[in-house]
Amino acid sequence: MTLASMAATLPAYLMPEPERNALPHSPPAAADDAGESSDQESVRLMLRVKEGDVKAFEQLVELHQNAVVGTCARMLNNIEDAHDIAQQVFIRVWRSAPRYEVTAKFTTWLFTITRNLVFNETRRRSRRKEVSMEQENEDDPPKYFADHSTPGADHITQQTELEQALDKAIAALPEKQRIAVIMRRHQDLPYEDICAVLKMSLPAVKSLLFRARTELRKHLAAYLGEDVE
Predict the structure, then answer these.
(1) Is 33 helix (H, G, I), strand (E, B) or coil?
(2) Nearby residues of 163 by Cβ (< 8 Å), 6 or more positions away
(3) Cα–Cα distance between 17 and 4 in angstroms, integer?
(4) pTM (2 decimals)?
(5) For the purposes of burial, counting CB atoms within 10 Å of the CB of 41, is it exposed (0-12), middle (13-18) or buried (19 or more)?
(6) What is the widest separation between alpha-carbon atoms in the chain?
């Protein structure tokens, strides 16, 4: 199997998506119901946290810590920094609990906090001119946080190389494009939630994601077997 033939694993990032409301059918509806039920449970827990319930807070952290850490890791390309920022996110959730009101989905509120703290960190890095990904020591272990299936032994090397190239391409995206791709593709947030988190209109978010996919295709042209001018 060649890397070019493995391009079939990439359309989730690079190809235009069908509209969610184009042709309703059972599996997406069931998934939507499950997502709504999960969010209702998070809201229920958060209202208990608002009353000072520590156990409810622990449950809330357990429910969402993987998504928050994963988002931070993909944005910052550093797992230790990701855990630090995630800890700050949940500290802010706890401290904000007395003022919490159910005005939006819990996940939207949570990812808005995550976005703010991650953007603060990326800007702090920029101001301090920290070493970029491209300047990392080649002997350092590669840092990538793509979700893994279990690849066969015959193409695990190619799969790893492809994932690394994809992570590097995502890391090279501008800040808002990067987090939009991560929220859409890794956390499966609907467009409307991304609009709320980024405080952008639906057309603006779709345009943002279109530009992100275009940039990803340019970075991954060699793997896709395409010529990009």
Answers:
(1) helix
(2) 144, 146, 148
(3) 22
(4) 0.68
(5) middle
(6) 58
